[in-house]
Write a structure and sequence with these properties.
alpha/beta; globular; single chain; Nitrilase/N-carbamoyl-D-aminoacid amidohydrolase
C-alpha cells in the first residue's frame, strides 16, 4: 500500500440560526472562508443550515424556505467553492421539479460544479421532529463522491453524505462504506427539548456513541456537524466532532458557541483498521437477508 500521504483537512461549520435567511447565509459564508484560511479542503454545513429548524412544529408554512437545485443559495456556494478551491456540502430544503419537497444536501466540487444531491433517506416523526410532515423519503439512493485532495490530483478521498436521522442507522453507514467512502459526513440538527425529561437516558451521549460505533465497525472517519442555540422549544447541543477510523474523537466543538472546527484526518488509518480487524473481509452477506425484510 505504501505510505502515501492521505491526509485530508475537514472543516465543520456550526452556527446558531435565526429567521433572517440572508443573514444566516452571510454568516455561514464568512465561516467557510475562515475554515478555508485554516486549510480546510472539504467543508460541511449543518442540516437546513440557512433556516430555523421548522420541523419542530407540526404545521408550519415552510414552503417559503424551499429552493431549487441549482438555485440562489447553491449558486452562492458554487461561486465560493470555485473561488476558494474547496469542496462544500450544502444542506437545504429542496423543492424538486416534481413539486415534491426533500431534505437534501448538495455536494459542490472545487470547480464550483454540483457533484451530486443526496436526499435524506430516513425521515423521523416524533414530537418536535415532525419531519414526515415536510419531507418526502429520499429517492436518489446513497451518494459517495470522489474528491481530489492534493493539487496534482493524484490522491483522492471518497466522501459519503448522510443527514441527521440517518446517523442512527448502521445500514446507511455500512452501505456508504461499501460504496467506497473514506469519510462519512453527517449534517445534523438535534438538541434537547426544553421541559422534556427523557426516559431514554442521555441523548447527546447516545448520538455521539452511535456515530463513533459506525466509524469503528466500518473503519471510516466520521464527521458530524450540528447547530447550536435555542429555537423555541429546542436547545441544540452543537458538539460537532470528527472521529477517526477506530472511533476516537479527534476534535470536538463547543456545546453552545458558534464555531469552525478544522481537523486533519489521516485516511491511511481506515485501511489499517479494516485489514487488522477484518470488519469487511469477514462479512457474511449470505446471512443478512433478514435485514431487508420490511418492518411489520
Amino acid at each position: 500500500m505504501g505510505n502515501h500521504n492521505m491526509e485530508v483537512i475537514i472543516g465543520l461549520v456550526q452556527t446558531a440560526v435565526t429567521d433572517n435567511i440572508p443573514e444566516n447565509i452571510r454568516k455561514t459564508v464568512g465561516l467557510v472562508r475562515k475554515a478555508a484560511e485554516q486549510g480546510a479542503q472539504i467543508i460541511c454545513l449543518q442540516e437546513l443550515f440557512n433556516t430555523i429548524y421548522f420541523p419542530q412544529y407540526e404545521k408550519y408554512g415552510a414552503e417559503r424556505f424551499a429552493e431549487s437545485i441549482p438555485g440562489d443559495t447553491i449558486n452562492i456556494f458554487s461561486k465560493l467553492a470555485k473561488e476558494l478551491g474547496i469542496v462544500i456540502i450544502v444542506p437545504i430544503f429542496e423543492k424538486a421539479l416534481n413539486n415534491k419537497y426533500y431534505n437534501s444536501a448538495v455536494t459542490i466540487g472545487a470547480d464550483g460544479s454540483i457533484l451530486g444531491v443526496y436526499r435524506k433517506i430516513h425521515i423521523p416523526f416524533d414530537p418536535f421532529f415532525y419531519e414526515k410532515n415536510y419531507f418526502r423519503d429520499g429517492d436518489l439512493g446513497y451518494q459517495v463522491y470522489k474528491i481530489p485532495i492534493n493539487r496534482n490530483k493524484t490522491r483522492f478521498a471518497s466522501i459519503g453524505v448522510l443527514i441527521c436521522y440517518d446517523q442512527w442507522f448502521p445500514e446507511a453507514a455500512r452501505i456508504n462504506t461499501l460504496m467506497g467512502a473514506d469519510i462519512i459526513f453527517y449534517s445534523t440538527a438535534i438538541g434537547w427539548i426544553k421541559g422534556h425529561s427523557s426516559q431514554d437516558g442521555d441523548w447527546h451521549n447516545a448520538w455521539e456513541t452511535v456515530q463513533r460505533g459506525h466509524a469503528i465497525a466500518n473503519g471510516v472517519h466520521v464527521a458530524a456537524v450540528n447547530r447550536v442555540g435555542e429555537e423555541d422549544r429546542m436547545k441544540f447541543w452543537g458538539g460537532s466532532f470528527v472521529s477517526d477510523a477506530f472511533g476516537k474523537v479527534i476534535k470536538k466543538a463547543s456545546l453552545e458557541d458558534e464555531e469552525v472546527l478544522v481537523v486533519k484526518a489521516d485516511l491511511n488509518m481506515n485501511k489499517m483498521i479494516r485489514e487488522g480487524w477484518g470488519f469487511l473481509d469477514n462479512r457474511r452477506p449470505d446471512t443478512y437477508p433478514p435485514i431487508c425484510k420490511a418492518p411489520k
